[in-house]
Every structure is written in structure tokens, then in C-alpha cells.
């Protein structure tokens, strides 16, 4: 399943295609916008299509990580229960496609966390 997400006005699912083994996310984030607080409990691969700079903010107050984007970059990410969000702090729209490696059909790739 591929969910299309736009962070122009928040997280919205715009469409799906079928693939039960490797669900994916097509993500577009405008400059100055970010995704909601969430965890990443599964391995994932992101292919960057567009963008220049993201900030990864941690809800626990840890140091913000900067991700200087290279178009065409492929990023393998390990699972993490640390609550965080990505904010587009660059000047370009960020676009990427992420494939999640889930361990069961009902798994949620990026469980959302309360904003408090």
C-alpha cells in the first residue's frame, strides 16, 4: 500500500495502491511545515526525490539533527521508539518515497503520538 501524504496543511492520505508486504509512503512537505510527532518502530528505506534540508526534532528535547538532502539519496533507517518529527527547514519542497518493512499486516508504520 502506498499512501500519499502532503504536509501543506497537515497529514492527509490522498490515495492507496496495493502491496501488503511492503507498504510505502509518498511524502511531500512544504518549506516551514513538518509531520506530526511519531515513532518509527520498523526498518525503512527512503528515496529522496526533491528537497534541500530537513530538521529532525525530538520531543524529549534532545539535540535537533540536520539532514542535508541530496536528491537521489537512498537512506536506510533502523527502528526507533524515540518520538520525533521532521520539519522542512530548507527552501525547497521535500519529496520522498519511503518503504516500510512491517512484521504483520495490521502493523502501523509510523504510529502518531500526542502533540503534548
Architecture overview:
By secondary structure, the chain is mainly β. Helices cover 0% and strands 46% of the residues. The chain has one domain: Jelly Rolls (Sandwich). It is built from no helices and nine strands. The strands form two sheets. The protein has a five-stranded mixed β-sheet with strand order 1-2-9-4-7, with no helix packed on it. A four-stranded antiparallel β-sheet has the order 3-8-5-6, with no helix packed on it.
Strand order of the largest sheet: 1-2-9-4-7
Biggest beta sheet attributes: 5 strands, mixed
Number of discrete domains: 1
Number-wise, the strands total 9
Total helical segments: 0
Distance between the termini: 30 Å
CATH T-level fold name: Jelly Rolls
- CATH architecture title: Sandwich
Output mean pLDDT.
85
Low-confidence sequence ranges: 8-20
Radius of gyration: 13 Å
List keywords for this structure.
116 residues; mainly beta; Jelly Rolls; five-stranded mixed β-sheet; 9 strands; 46% strand
Can you summarize this structure?
By secondary structure, this protein is mainly β.
Topology:
Blueprint: E1 2-6, E2 24-29, E3 38-40, E4 43-50, E5 53-58, E6 65-68, E7 74-77, E8 80-88, E9 94-101
Parallel strand pairs: 1-2
Antiparallel strand pairs: 2-9, 3-8, 4-7, 4-9, 5-6, 5-8
Amino acid at each position: 500500500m502506498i499512501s500519499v501524504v502532503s504536509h501543506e496543511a497537515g497529514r492527509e492520505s490522498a490515495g492507496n495502491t496495493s502491496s501488503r508486504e511492503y507498504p510505502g509512503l509518498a511524502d511531500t512537505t512544504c518549506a516551514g511545515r513538518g509531520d506530526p510527532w511519531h515513532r518509527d518502530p520498523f526498518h525503512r528505506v527512503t528515496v529522496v526525490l526533491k528537497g534541500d534540508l530537513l530538521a529532525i526534532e525530538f520531543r524529549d528535547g534532545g539535540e535537533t539533527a540536520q539532514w542535508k538532502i541530496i536528491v537521489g539519496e537512498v537512506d536506510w533507517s533502523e527502528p526507533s521508539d524515540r518520538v520525533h518529527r521532521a520539519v522542512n527547514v530548507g527552501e525547497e519542497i521535500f519529496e520522498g518515497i519511503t518503504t516500510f518493512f512491517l512484521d504483520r499486516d495490521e502493523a502501523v508504520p509510523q504510529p502518531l503520538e500526542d502533540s503534548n
